């Protein structure tokens, strides 16, 4: 059974039970009070009849039962609207006298058999259907024997009144049940409305809609429960967002690392190919081995820094002043074999000026831009890496190519994660669309900006503007 119907039935049953018990106690109490008043009047009538008999017998000598019968005929007692009914009977129940007003079915026994001198008693007698009488009797001594003075009062009206009250109360209870049922239905609906909202919100969360909130419109237990649910929902949403972000960062790291590892591997493979494909002088062998060693060490350091940058979201990488001419020349040399193998001419033109950078990360940016230029430039084309000092101690790094160029409508989107201008070329060359997004992030960590311009069919240019000072 639903909680709504449990609450509804409980309210109706409790109300009906309480009203039923209260009505029964009230009606029964009124009936008993009225019956006790009739018993008291019965006592008083019997006492007055005894006094009347005593007054009639005073100064007279009763010679026998016949004289006693004539004596009782002279006794009358008028009450409100009627004459009191009485009779005299002996110990055997034989009638000795009276006014013949008692019902004929009102037996003397067993009431009188239990009375002794000057004792009084009463009983309730149902002489016919719906006819109820209070039958009273008291013992006294006349003619040197114990006789019983009996009287009665008709209390049928009390029983009829009680039955009428019970019938009226029954119809009132039917109306009360209908009214209480309607009121309980409304009250149960109002009480359970916050729970229904909570249930709907919980189902929404189970379906994946974690931003569920329910209105808090009271300060009672249900209101506090709603507030606690909202707090729980916000906490769950925040935790799920954190887990989602963590999973996304791990995915980005995996994709970025897979992407970034290709550039140093390109350099390593290029220099290894030089060692294998031609006769080299000892100096050339040492130079190529040095580049291979340096790119391997950079790859080792890069993996750790990419982990901190992407997964741990670190932003406080230490920067140091670097000679930008030497830095850019070394960066260009690292990718020169791959460019020459593709039939592309590389030119490096850098002014001497210091800049505060994290060398491994900034080299990753420059190599990414050079590698993208290589992929976009056909054989016979050229790629230029330039650097020059700017005002306020800043420095400009620029990578230009004579490749296909980028459509103007897509320039603003090329740094979005997983966005690729030429998807077929990217798939053929193993791209994932993460390189430029990572480049922009690294440049922003240096306090700089990354911008692009292009003329379709003529080439593209990428510019890195680094701020002066430590770049913070």
TL;DR of this structure?
54% of the residues lie in helices and 19% in strands. The chain is an alpha+beta fold and 472 residues long.
Describe this structure in words.
The structure is a single chain. It contains ten helices and 14 strands. The protein has 472 residues and is an alpha+beta fold. The strands form four sheets. It has a five-stranded antiparallel beta sheet with strand order 4-3-7-6-5. It has a five-stranded mixed beta sheet with strand order 9-11-12-14-13. Strand 13 and strand 14 form a beta hairpin.
Overall pLDDT, averaged? 82
The largest beta-sheet arranges its strands as 4-3-7-6-5
The computed structural class is alpha+beta
Give a count of the beta strands, DSSP E runs of length 2 or more: 14
- Biggest sheet details: 5 strands, antiparallel
Task: Give me some keywords for this one.
14 strands, 10 helices, 472 residues
Write the layout of secondary structure elements.
Blueprint: H1 3-57, H2 65-73, E1 78-79, E2 82-83, E3 85-89, E4 95-98, E5 120-128, E6 131-142, E7 145-154, H3 156-206, H4 221-260, H5 262-277, H6 282-311, E8 320-323, H7 324-341, E9 345-350, E10 354-357, H8 359-376, E11 382-389, E12 395-401, H9 423-428, H10 435-445, E13 449-455, E14 459-466
Parallel strand pairs: 9-11
Antiparallel strand pairs: 1-2, 3-4, 3-7, 5-6, 6-7, 8-10, 11-12, 12-14, 13-14
Helix pairs in contact: 1-3, 3-4, 4-6, 5-6, 5-7, 7-8, 8-10
